[in-house]
Amino acid sequence: MPEESIEKANLDKLIQHAISKPLVSNIYIADPSAHVFNNKIYIYPSHDIDAGIPFNDNGDHFGMEDYHVISMESIDSEAVDNGVALHVDDVPWAQRQMWAPDAAYKNGKYYLLFPAKNKEGIFQIGVAISSSPIGPFKAEPLPIKGSYSIDPAIFEDEDGSFYLYFGGIWGGQLQNYRNNEYNSSYELPKKNEPALGPIVAKMTDDLLQFTETPKEIKIVDDNGNPLLEGDNERRFFEASWVHKYNGKYYFSYSTGDTHFICYATGDNPYGPFTYQGRILEPVIGWTSHHSICKVDEKWYLFYHDSSLSNGVTHLRTVKVSEIFHDENGLITTLKPYQI
Fold it and tell me: Which is the catalytic residue, given 48, 81, 229, 238?
C-alpha cells in the first residue's frame, strides 16, 4: 500500500488480515536476501533504525549502520537474530547507509556483498568474508573495482559461475551512470525512452572482483521492445533478484514508486528478460524488496512491509510466504493482505 494512502486505509485491518507475520520483532529489518546453507535458512537483511532524517526521494531517511543475520532451522521454526555481523565503522572505505545486502557461499567461506556510500557520497559495493554464515564478517579494504549503485544480488548458476546483479534509480544513483561512467548531470531517460536497466557482471573465482565490464540488462515486452521509462508499473526501479526454475532464469525486481514486485524470464544470466507479471502486490510502506528461495522443494518469497511500525516507511519487518509456479512456469501473484 503506497505511503500516501496509509491514512485512508484501515491499517489495523490490513495488519490483521496479513498473509504472514513478522519473522522477528526485536529489531526492524528489511530487504531480506534468503539462502539455504548446510540445510539451514539464513536471511541477510538491512537493519532499519530511526536516524531522525526527514523523508525524501533520495532515501536519506534510510540511515542503516550495520547488518544482522537471521537464521531459521526450518521454514516453520522460530527466526533467530544473531546480532551484529558487520558495522559501517569496520568498513574502511564506507561512510554511511548500509543498504540491502546479499550473501554467497564458496569453498568454506561466506561472502557478504553490500552497498554503502563512500567518503564522496557515492554508492559502491563491498565484500566482507567470514568462516560462519552468521559472521562476524571482515570487510575488504576497498570496494569492488567498477561497482556502483545499490542492491547487490549474487546468483550462483549450475556451472558454479557467480553473477552479481545491482542497480537502483533515484537514491540508488543508477540514473547518474551511462556505460558505467558517473556524471552527476545525467538524469533519468524521458518517459517515451527505454528505461534504465539493472546491471550484471560475472564474478572472479574468489568472489572479490568482476571478471568483465558490467553490462546493462534489457527488460522487454512480449514483442521484444524495451520497457519504457514511463511504464512505471513494469519498468525496473531497484531490488534485483535471480532464481532458476525448470531451466529458465527468473529476474525479479521492484517497480519502486508503483510498489510492485515484478518478474521477467530469460534464457541466460545476461538476459534479455521478457516481462511476465507481478509476484507481489503493494505492501504497507513505500518500499518493496524481496528474495526468492527454494526450501525443501518448495519456493518461498521473503519480503518486507511496515506493519510492525504501524506504517513507518523506514522501519520495516521481514515476512515470508510460499509462492507457486504454474504448469507454464508463471508465478501466481500474491496479495499481502486478504481483505
Answer: 238
